[in-house]
């Protein structure tokens, strides 16, 4: 498995663990809901984008057909850019939607996530081939 796939899958598993832990805290004690409930958007962001999108990126980078000549998986730097941008986006959106007065962070985070998708698509698109 390529190093980028390993890092994407590991980060996805960390996001799953953090999101599940935060979800458990949110469910554990309704008395905590006053202070902890504001972190519900971070919980959702960790599980939807941090877990599922990163896992999809990691598996796709690994499983898509390789090139016969040149770099076998194409422009790896675009994959690393997607890795950094998606994690930055998860943190910024989670904090921006959870912390009062930080709404502009959420916009910056969504922009980073959009750029991550664009970078990964640019990296993976040439490798998408019809089955013969």
What's the topology here?
Blueprint: H1 3-28, H2 33-36, H3 40-63, H4 76-98, H5 103-124
Helix pairs in contact: 1-3, 1-4, 3-4, 4-5
Structure, explained:
It is a single chain. The chain has 132 residues and is an all-alpha fold. It has one domain (3-127). 75% of the residues lie in helices and 0% in strands. It has five helices and no strands. The protein has helices at residues 3-28, 33-36, 40-63, 76-98, 103-124. α1 packs parallel to α4. The longest helix has 26 residues, at 3-28. The protein is elongated and about 60 Å long. The two termini are 24 Å apart.
Radius of gyration: 17 Å
User: Helicity level, as a percent range?
Assistant: over 70%
The termini sit apart by 24 Å
Give a count of the beta strands, DSSP E runs of length 2 or more: 0
Coarse morphology = elongated
Residue windows where pLDDT falls under 50 for at least 5 positions: none
Q: How many domains is the backbone divided into? A: 1
Helical segment tally? 5
Derived from helix and strand composition plus strand pairing, the structural class reads: mainly alpha
**Global mean pLDDT:** 88
Strand content: under 5%
Order of helical and strand elements: HHHHH
> The biggest beta sheet, please?
none
């Amino acid at each position: 498995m390529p190093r980028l796939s390993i890092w994407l899958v590991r980060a996805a598993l960390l996001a799953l663990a953090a999101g599940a832990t935060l979800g458990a805290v949110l469910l554990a004690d309704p008395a905590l809901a006053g202070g902890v409930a504001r972190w519900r958007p971070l919980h959702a962001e960790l599980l939807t984008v941090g877990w599922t999108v990163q896992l999809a990126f990691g598996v796709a980078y690994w499983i898509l057909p390789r090139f016969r000549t040149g770099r076998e998986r194409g422009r790896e730097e675009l994959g690393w850019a997607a890795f950094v941008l998606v994690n930055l986006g998860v943190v910024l959106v989670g904090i921006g939607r959870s912390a009062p007065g930080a709404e502009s962070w959420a916009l910056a985070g969504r922009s980073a996530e959009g750029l991550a998708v664009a970078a990964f698509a640019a990296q993976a698109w040439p490798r998408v081939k019809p089955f013969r």
